[in-house]
């Protein structure tokens, strides 16, 4: 009966305790900081760059940095141990050099963005992007203090070894910063009396597996050590996209049509994981290129291929932010006759290379103005280049887009550098003339080059959300202007005008006569495409351009980051761009899925896409993907430190997390240690006393064991 | 096993056996042998097999000591030079360290 009673009491006790016990102890102590993006580690042939915490995470006392003096106090005067500096993006550039130069007292940094205080400059790219992969004649040196740097305000953090973790908290997660700030104000405000008190602290965990350089980390990833078969880094890379106006001829004996190669970049970068909007640095150029390709495909139907002796090849390069991965691979493949794989070209087949470079930076500067000044950089004034510029200027001037030629070997960062290094003979001799269109003369107009702030605000994008007609009919630009939906100053209009001017110029190159039709690029298409790439991948265009076999679930309503990522894991932007080219510039065939899959016409690929009415559509296109992985990773026994090709790899990590908590003052721990020591001493003294007085205390104790049996027992016990 | 209960010839046999096993690159067995038979070899009053046991105990202790020196030297050299040995250092490593050279 007694047992039953005890049991009942236990059950009741547990029933009462359980509801209060739900929250686990660590949840009571720590409050996690959600929605942050961590800086991670990348490596090249000779160095490691980026951040890593220790494997247990970096812990430091939270310190809000409101001005430069706060940072100076943290670095020189703080005595409470390493601190986690919490900094606004507007102040970041002013204090980061101090925190980098004196890292002893810095455990980590949290950067947050508050839209009310947008910085004038915020770029973690170096002053001379891809400086070490630049072609001959480049004058930009990030080490020199002269003012001819392209990215003047760049801190270069993305290329430097940062001794502590950095986390970024976007505008949408400002409540997390408020949480830290409240905790900071409650515990850490009295700077001169912090010691021995409970303090508001932060733990940042972003431990990176890779170290030293790409050669070391790839070697460690390849060796299958017995206990740690861990991959520590992966090469960067993804896919390049190419699309030709007419199918490329196959075979050696066929006379190939001279090609005009028109390129742009897909990717961009930022210091932080999963945050690479790249609106001005890459999206505007890429979208303009796709629109121009679509427009030209309408001006010259593919069926007329036999009428003309010229062709246009459009290419989108990926991984350009990291020593021009995509264009280096294309230039390398061209030099060995392997690009495009199914009908390889030689460099002399290309009679002009036009790159749409960074053209989004000045859109904000000219937002009140219908004009859009562009600059055409070329290393030398070969006749193909000057002829192109004359026609292009004529076409673009009609739309208030001026084009100023700049003949210099000091070219802005662009894929031209890859061609000029790898195909040096052809570019120097004029076999492969190259021209680059950008929106800046000298330094970049985009002050957020390759950063988290290079977003829709940076180009002044306002989404008009106009419904798309049946079969993907987009409202023409003139109609949008006539009924006041858009103005001449809208970036969509400017981009459609540039795309039209480029398409008309290329039309003249292909056909030999000026275009006099009325086909133009639609600002409505620009609106939709920009929305897809910089706001949300759950957009009309990408839904229609997706594989019909893909699941119907709606993709996330945020833009896909344009960071190239690791080669082993395809990232969406290249697939999006390729599919948009297929859907918008390809021929829609009236076939069902089985018939579509059975198509085998040489020079074309066939895609079964979802289409505008979601019922599936068969697309015949010349669009195709090629691998954008640096030649460094495909050449056997390539010397990683040679600097010839891009050798960037990305470290593997297990988890990234940040949390805030109140660290104990240490008084409790000290008291516990003292109590423990006291109890031990007391117990020893008591035992000693008991032994001493055992005879008095235990008068009838049995005599000590002395027999042989006892000895054996003792031995066994030992 | 209690050595006190073992006849002397068995003790010698056991000590010799441990020494031989230790020859198979098992210095820890030598170390155990040396400690275990130390009293038998040097403390107990003399008996017939004691000299032989003494010999094996000394050889075991010496062998174990040499092993300790060699291993300590190797560990020191490996730990201080692993990074500069680069690929060789990594291939000699049983556990490759994460996040550092």
Automatic annotation (TrEMBL), chain A:
Keywords: Glycoprotein, Membrane, Notch signaling pathway, Signal, Transmembrane, Transmembrane helix
Main location: membrane
GO CC entries: plasma membrane
Any one Pfam family match given in the protein's UniProt record, by short name: Nicastrin
Membrane topology: Single-pass type I membrane protein
Domain of life: Eukaryota
Coiled coil: none
Residues spanning the signal sequence: 1-22
UniProt GO BP: Notch receptor processing; Notch signaling pathway; protein processing
Keyword hit for Lipid biosynthesis: no
Domain Nicastrin small lobe: 38-210
Subcellular location: Membrane
Family in the record: Belongs to the nicastrin family.
PANTHER family: NICASTRIN
The protein's name in its UniProt record: Nicastrin
Organism of derivation: Parnassius apollo (Apollo butterfly)
Lineage: Eukaryota, Metazoa, Ecdysozoa, Arthropoda, Hexapoda
From TrEMBL, chain B:
Pfam families assigned to the protein according to its UniProt record, in alphabetical order: PEN-2 (PF10251)
A GO BP entry: Notch signaling pathway
InterPro entries: Gamma_Secretase_Asp_P_PEN2
GO cellular component: gamma-secretase complex
Compartment(s) of residence: Membrane
Principal location: membrane
Membrane topology: Multi-pass membrane protein
Keyword Transmembrane helix assigned: yes
Record carries keyword NAD: no
Designated name of the protein: Gamma-secretase subunit PEN-2
């Amino acid at each position: 009966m007694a047992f039953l009673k005890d049991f009942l009491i236990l059950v009741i006790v547990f029933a009462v305790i359980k509801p209060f016990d739900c929250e686990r102890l660590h949840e009571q102590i720590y409050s996690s900081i959600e929605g942050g993006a961590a800086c991670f580690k990348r490596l090249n042939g000779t160095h490691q760059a980026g951040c890593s915490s220790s494997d247990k995470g970096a812990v430091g006392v939270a310190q809000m940095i409101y001005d430069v003096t706060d940072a100076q106090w943290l670095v020189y005067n703080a005595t409470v141990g390493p601190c986690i500096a919490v900094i606004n993006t507007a102040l970041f550039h002013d204090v980061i050099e101090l925190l980098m130069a004196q890292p002893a007292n810095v455990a980590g940094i949290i950067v947050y963005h508050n839209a009310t205080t947008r910085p004038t400059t915020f770029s973690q790219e170096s002053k001379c992007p891809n400086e070490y992969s630049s072609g001959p004649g480049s004058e930009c040196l990030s080490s020199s203090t002269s003012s001819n740097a392209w990215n003047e305000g760049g801190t270069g953090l993305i290329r430097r070894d940062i001794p502590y973790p950095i986390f970024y908290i976007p505008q949408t997660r400002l409540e997390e910063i408020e949480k830290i700030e409240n905790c900071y104000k409650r515990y850490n405000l009295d700077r001169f009396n912090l010691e021995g008190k409970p303090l508001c602290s932060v733990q940042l965990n972003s431990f990176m597996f890779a170290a030293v350089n790409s050669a070391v980390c790839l070697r460690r990833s390849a060796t299958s050590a017995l206990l740690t078969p861990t991959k520590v880094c992966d090469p960067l890379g993804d896919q390049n996209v190419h699309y030709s106006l007419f199918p490329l001829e196959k075979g050696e004996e066929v006379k190939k049509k001279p090609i005009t190669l028109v390129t742009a970049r897909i990717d961009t970068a930022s210091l932080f994981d999963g945050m690479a909007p790249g609106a001005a640095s890459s999206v505007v150029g890429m979208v303009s290129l796709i629109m121009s390709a679509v427009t030209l495909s309408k001006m010259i139907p593919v069926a007329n291929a036999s009428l003309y002796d010229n062709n246009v090849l459009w290419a989108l390069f990926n991984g350009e932010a990291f020593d021009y991965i995509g264009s280096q691979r294309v230039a390398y493949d061209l030099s060995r006759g392997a690009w495009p794989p199914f009908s390889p070209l030689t460099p002399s087949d290309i009679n002009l290379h036009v790159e749409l470079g960074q053209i989004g930076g000045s859109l904000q500067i000219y937002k009140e103005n219908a004009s859009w000044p562009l600059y055409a950089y070329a290393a030398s004034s070969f006749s193909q280049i000057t002829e192109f510029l004359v026609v292009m200027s004529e076409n673009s001037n009609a739309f208030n887009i001026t084009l100023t030629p700049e003949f210099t070997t000091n070219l802005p960062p662009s894929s031209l550098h890859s061609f000029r290094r790898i195909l040096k003979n052809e570019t120097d001799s004029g076999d492969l003339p190259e021209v680059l269109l950008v929106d800046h003369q000298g330094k970049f107009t985009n002050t957020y080059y390759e950063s988290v702030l290079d977003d829709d605000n940076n180009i002044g994008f306002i989404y008009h959300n106009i419904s798309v007609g049946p079969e993907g009919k987009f409202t023409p630009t003139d109609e949008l202007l006539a009924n006041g939906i858009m103005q001449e100053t809208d970036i969509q209009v400017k981009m459609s005008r540039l795309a039209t001017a480029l398409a008309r110029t290329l039309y003249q190159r292909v056909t030999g006569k000026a275009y006099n039709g009325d086909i133009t690029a639609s600002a409505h298409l620009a609106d939709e495409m920009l929305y897809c790439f910089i706001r949300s991948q759950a957009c009309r265009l990408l839904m229609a351009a997706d594989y019909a076999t893909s699941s119907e679930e709606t993709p996330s309503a945020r833009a896909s980051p344009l960071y190239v990522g690791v080669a082993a894991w395809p990232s969406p932007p290249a697939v999006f761009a390729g599919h948009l080219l297929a859907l918008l510039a390809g021929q829609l065939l009236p076939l069902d899925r089985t018939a579509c899959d059975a198509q085998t016409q040489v020079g074309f690929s066939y895609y079964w896409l979802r289409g505008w009415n979601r019922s599936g559509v068969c697309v015949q296109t010349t669009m195709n993907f090629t691998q954008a992985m640096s030649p460094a990773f495909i050449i056997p026994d390539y010397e990683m430190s040679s600097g010839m090709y891009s050798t960037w790899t990305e470290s593997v990590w297990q988890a990234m997390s940040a949390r805030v908590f109140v660290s104990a003052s240490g008084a409790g721990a000290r008291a516990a240690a003292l109590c423990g020591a006291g109890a031990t001493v007391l117990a020893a003294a008591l035992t000693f006393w008991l032994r001493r007085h055992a005879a008095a205390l235990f008068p009838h104790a049995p005599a000590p064991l002395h027999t042989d049996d006892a000895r054996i027992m003792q031995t066994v016990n030992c | 096993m209690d050595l006190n209960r073992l006849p002397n010839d068995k003790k010698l046999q056991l000590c010799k056996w441990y020494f031989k096993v230790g020859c198979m690159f098992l210095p820890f067995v030598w170390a155990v042998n040396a400690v275990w038979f130390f009293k038998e070899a040097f403390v107990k009053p003399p008996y017939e097999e004691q000299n032989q046991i003494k010999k094996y105990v000394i050889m075991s202790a010496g062998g174990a000591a040499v092993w300790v020196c060699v291993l300590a030297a190797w560990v020191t050299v490996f730990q201080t030079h692993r990074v500069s040995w680069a690929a060789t250092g990594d291939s000699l490593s049983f556990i490759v360290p994460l996040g550092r050279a």
